[in-house]
Amino acid sequence: MRALTPYVPGEQPRDPDVIKLNTNENPYGPSPKVLSAIRAEVNDALRLYPDPNTSQLKSILAEVHSISPDQVFVGNGSDEVLAHIFHGLLQHDEPVLFPDIAYSFYPVYCRLYDIAYETIPLDVKFGINFDAYNRPNGGIIFSNPNAPTGRGLKLDSIEELLAHNSDSVVIVDEAYVAFGGESAIGLTEKFKNLLVVQTLSKSHGLAGLRVGFAFGHPTLIEALERVKNSFNSYPLDRLAIAGAVAAIQDPEYLDKTCKQVVATRKRLVSELERLKFEVLPSQANFVFVTHLRNAAEDISHALRDRSIFVRHFDQARIADYLRITVGKDDEINALINALQEILAETEQRDLGK
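Request: output the structure for the sequence above.
Response:
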């Protein structure tokens, strides 16, 4: 336990006046139908345990994705779903493979469950080279779009990877797929070794509710159910189930808010490029950027002094990058104005040297 290095989440400031662009939360919040459904569930039935199988939610998800309910697993946020996957499906002699720049919970799970792993370097443009994964392994996991870079992958590349690794479980983590990515759920019918993980935290504005899913072949899903029922038979409470069902049943709200995020992302990219930032192509609700003349850490501190939080990763290869969540338009306006001030001050200091 002393040797473990836990995952460090993005900072959660208590000051309500802070502009919070550091944890990729959806700025538009959940559908009003979600709030109504949760309120309706606040009654005497809370004395009873929730459905341990979350059957209603599984059925609705299966209908939406044209699969069967036994191809759906539900957990307390996608982090718990991933934890069960690592614990139950990825403990093998060969190492698990994932990118060197990826969701930083992956190595945490490996160390927690004593799973051997190797990181495969992204290329110079922060893309995944799938040829490097065609080797003996105990499983493969990656995000699409990738976190924290935001870059997306084509389904034909994923399909080729699956074909070359038919004896390994391949996990595609799709936390941000609703903002412009291509989901691999349709490939689960063809590839029995594929698990696709999603969450309501980002796209549906429900980070505070903690609901995540895995989609895959019934054999893999049944294995996850065994792990779950050996750990916690009731991972989703009554309020979470009611809210999740209502969220899935309001696709119009999802489509509207995701389009708003994408439109603001496009404007944010344009403004950042005007300020001499290099911006990676993003299919997520954030952008990954570096400035041509100023250190990312310095910019992050200067923004923080102005009560604007962005995410800086003190990690090899990306220490000069910032991850900036796409907020509402007024938040992005404040960010751009602050960056203009910071860069102007820096330029004046440099001229005075």
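Residues 251-274 form the longest helix (24 residues).
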